[in-house]
Design brief:
This protein is an alpha+beta fold and about 350 residues long. It has three domains: about 1-30, no CATH class; about 45-150, 60s Ribosomal Protein L30, Chain: A; about 155-335, Phosphoribosyl-aminoimidazole Synthetase, Chain A, domain 2, CATH 3.90.650.10. It has twelve helices and twelve strands. It has a seven-stranded mixed sheet, with helices on both faces. The protein has a five-stranded mixed sheet with strand order 1-2-5-3-4, covered by helices on one side. Strand 11 and strand 12 form a beta hairpin. Helix 4 runs parallel beside helix 5. The chain is globular.
Length: about 350
Amino acid sequence: MLVSDLGEFGLIDCITRLIDKKSIKRAGPWQDLLVPAGDDAAAWKSRNGIELITTDILVEDIHFDFSYTSWQDLGWKSIAINISDIYAMGGRPQYALVSLALPGAHLVSDVLAMYEGIIKICNKYGIVLAGGNISASEKVVVNVTLTGMAGKDIMTRSAARPGDLIAVFGHPGLSTAGWKALIGHKKIDEADMKIMRRAHVHPAPGLDSGPRLAACGVRAAIDTSDGLLSDLEHMCEASRTGAVIYAQNLPVHRLLKKYFKQEFLEIALTGGEDYQLLFTAGPETMDAITKTMKPAPTVIGEIISGQPGKITVMDAKGNTFAFNCKGWDHYQRASCHE
């Protein structure tokens, strides 16, 4: 079987099962590990509390294109995509390590511009840039490892329960709409293009959104990196639940409706790289969160019992929707938003 036949998430599942089967689980580190491989970040108990670590990678011509991505935006985004993972566990980011691979023909000023972007976002989110590594490569590759610290409780993908409401921050699909605009799928007004471009190349996870949710008692969360439906499916599979999404409740950005009249719903549900939080909570907790957090999340559905990972999308009249693509998969991406 080829990797492309299995797909990104099937491959991750195979690797995770192999780790669980073959790794020698000695006392100490294994006992301190709080979540198995496969969540947004690794978490373990330490003397100081709960420590977190995550890593993510950006590869030229896969995750970004220099025809529309500046070096400074690349630096910003490389950190942002890791912040959302730490937030999804309820933690605050602390230390970043940046590994960079690139051809020697690039200008030193370009590389320094990338680090300007890294430093800018690290300063905004209180992150210490602690080191990294550099290697030669045929294309630019940026890999970031980010640590974090959580309070006494963390949020995980596996903690959603039937009866929980589902909510999301931001405008799902706006990043993908921006990407479509940048590669020329649509003719976009200049002012609108600025908004859409920023959503894709300069994502900004809500400041302290993860720790604030955890402090309110939220226990189930994931970041919207692969697409709302895909990420919610990951959560439901881990929690052994199903879900219902009410299409009329989705916080669809006005620009999606303006430029993508026939497909805005599909983009909102399946478009990735928003890097905001999707989470669940009981009705009372959710009511308190929507009334006190600014900007407020939007309630879009509920967790139900049933087939793990099965998600139903319906409108106000009870009509249901089906989509060929649920979100981003590196080895099956040709079917999604191409």
